[in-house]
Amino acid sequence: xxxxxxxxxxxxxxxxxxxxxxxxxxxxxxxxxxxxxxxxxxxxxxxxxxxxxxxxxxxxxxxxxxxxxxxxxxxxxxxxxxxxxxxxxxxxxxxxxxxxxxxxxxxxxxxxxxxxxxxxxxxxxxxxxxxxxxxxxxxxxxxxxxxxxxxxx
Length: 153
Hints:
By secondary structure, the chain is mostly helical. Helices cover 36% and strands 7% of the residues. It has a three-stranded antiparallel β-sheet, with no helix packed on it.
């Protein structure tokens, strides 16, 4: 039994898929699956070793601009790039030092509360100083008072 056929048979027996196994009939499975050359391989960025992080962070602190601040904040909060670049001041409770990311911006589709360290609070203070106007809603301001794009990091 071919590998695809056995996987689909297992899924059918376990109730994960209904109906006949299309891999059993010649010429059917190729209609359901993309061609092998059309499936893209994912290439992840190289990871920084844990031992290299302090030196990297020290260099990052020397960098000016909103992108560097956003990257520092992402590292300290272990947040995804899109969550950081989309952060709004209304989500930040400066008194309680908590960032409440709303469910609509979370991959898990539920609110995520992030406790903020003293260093991350300093980053937020620096971000506020870099802003063109106090009324800007985005924490990490890009062009024209909007949230910065993810490429900015």
